[in-house]
Amino acid sequence: xxxxxxxxxxxxxxxxxxxxxxxxxxxxxxxxxxxxxxxxxxxxxxxxxxxxxxxxxxxxxxxxxxxxxxxxxxxxxxxxxxxxxxxxxxxxxxxxxxxxxxxxxxxxxxxxx
Amino acid sequence: xxxxxxxxxxxxxxxxxxxxxxxxxxxxxxxxxxxxxxxxxxxxxxxxxxxxxxxxxxxxxxxxxxxxxxxxxxxxxxxxxxxxxxxxxxxxxxxxxxxxxxxxxxxxx
Lengths: 113, 109
What we know:
The complex is a heterodimer. By secondary structure, chain A is an all-beta fold.
């Protein structure tokens, strides 16, 4: 069974706090993605990574950064959380060029107050 | 630009057939995914189409026409548990994956 584990299921943070969302996979897949999902807006891509230490901006990278120091771990960082970053965050993985399935983590529900 | 469009909501009756359409305008398109998502849960994989044509998997089938930038998901013999959101997503040549906003499907008894 594929395992994509997001470190926190539910978080409540204060405005201005630094927030780390961690995603760990056990499949040795090259590609990892961070999305946020909001009602009426669907899944929007924040950042993705092809390999260790590589990162690419998605469609809404502002206010976020990422880190991929090890192949199995992809972290999403909110340097200074704001209320408009209240959302559900989903991590996903895919085998490199040959992969035809995306696997998702269970999601992290972040509330910024 | 990159855009994936699908209807916001659809309603169908238990036992019937429903077709959920998806159109896309993207540069460098590789293939198209369909995912099912129940409220409060992560999306789960339904299908992936690379070549034109229809792929059938039990009650669910997915169709792709690359020349028309069009796909559909066909659900047969609808069951109440099929009430969910259905997400269309494009895999681009740079391995980026972008999603449509999803179609909420309501099944009536």
